[in-house]
Amino acid sequence: MAVLLLFFMLPLSISASGDAFIGVNIGSDISDMPGPTEIVALLKAQSIQHVRLYDADQALLLALANTGIRVTVSVPNDQLLGIGQSNATAANWVTRNVIAHVPATNITAICVGSEVLTTLPNAAPILVSAINFIHSALVAANLDRQIKVSSPHSSSIILDSFPPSQAFFNRTWNPVMVPMFKFLQSTGSCLMLNVYPYYDYQQSNGVIPLDYALFRPLPPNKEAVDSNTLLHYTNVFDAVVDAAYFAMSDLNFTNIPIMVTESGWPSKGDSSEPDATVDNANTYNSNLIRHVLNNTGTPKHPGIAVSTFIYELYNEDLRSGPVSEKNWGLFYANGEPVYTLHLTGAGILFANDTTNQTFCVTKSNADPKMLQAALDWACGPGKVDCSPLLQGQPCYEPDNVVAHSTYAFNAYYQKMDKSPGSCDFKGVATVTTTDPSHGSCIFPGRYDFWSLC
């Protein structure tokens, strides 16, 4: 086997560097729901490497096996009370929905409930118990290091959110938030937050400019300035994330990273939602993807990863409420795109944008010893995630230095934004437009990375 020199570092604080990823949420309120194999085929065709499920659908988890796609599963709110009151019930849930599927299915996180404080307040007292019981079951199975546990919250639990430096959490929930933050801190997990600039914009009665909500460029005199910190904000997304950071600081927690578990923009609305349009949805999500993958971070924490899941993969026609509720998807149920994302210059994430699709591969006549040396460098000092090359993972086969180095070289090339000289490796690599993906081993046009948590 090609020897891999892998170096792993656990982040010790929020100041540690990390690279963000973009994922998608997969809802199921669809009258003509695609089958699991159709869903996975779409994910692979679009090079989507991170997904979040609102449950732990057995058929879909089986279909995701051996794809390498990183999966977040969820404890639905209607199961929360039982799990939060019984360690045994939590253990059974983990056995059935996690242990039964790993390692073939790459489950990396568990969401315990969703927006519990704002949608199911009677379950709030047992939320932390549920989180702890789920985590204890992972510890017992020796899975706690590879599978993180948290609970997504609505950004509405943050009060006085602008300027961000004045933000604090609704103190009614301090008996829940403080022990939850202690748990997240002790386990190296993220605060999961749902961030919807669309709703902030809608509810502002004209105070928030549309361009500010959509990440569109603003002249300096139109940027929002925090009068306490003098930090400049060019978009709502960053302001909300920083408000959460400051609110955690208000409770003396300063080293918990944030993951955005939902964000997006609807492509259609009723007469009271004139800004729910295809163009605005495309603009928001395209700019969001670029912003996240550039590892810009936020004004409070520049360069710190804010990995984000787009809401959502499919339009959900069975959802109740206004027209916009049914139209957050990137795709229709038949797999046709609602719009083609504008990702020029941001690398390839979705295959329906084919600009600048190049890969870095091994030269056919390369010396094996030079390949091994370059492979060791890429997986070590080059800081490439070479875990897909380990035995049992999707890119292990074929088990030889040529195949493994091709994967690692391409990963480094994409990581460096395809910059000149990043596909050379002392003359043993070259650029190609031919996708070297094979079987379940997917070579994204832009490499996906782990987040901090």
TrEMBL record:
This protein's name: glucan endo-1,3-beta-D-glucosidase
InterPro entries named among the record's database cross-references: GH, Glyco_hydro_17, Glyco_hydro_17_plant, X8
Protein species of origin: Glycine soja
X8 domain ranges (all copies): 358-443
E.C. designation(s): 3.2.1.39
Pfam assignment, any one: X8
Family named by the database record: Belongs to the glycosyl hydrolase 17 family.
A single GO BP: carbohydrate metabolic process
UniProt keywords, alphabetically: Cell membrane, Disulfide bond, Glycoprotein, Glycosidase, GPI-anchor, Hydrolase, Lipoprotein, Membrane, Plant defense, Signal
Membrane topology according to the record: Lipid-anchor; GPI-anchor
Signal peptide (residue range): 1-16
Recorded GO CC terms: plasma membrane; plasmodesma; side of membrane
Gene Ontology molecular function, alphabetical: glucan endo-1,3-beta-D-glucosidase activity
Top EC category: hydrolase
Catalytic activity: Hydrolysis of (1->3)-beta-D-glucosidic linkages in (1->3)-beta-D-glucans
Cellular compartments annotated: Cell membrane
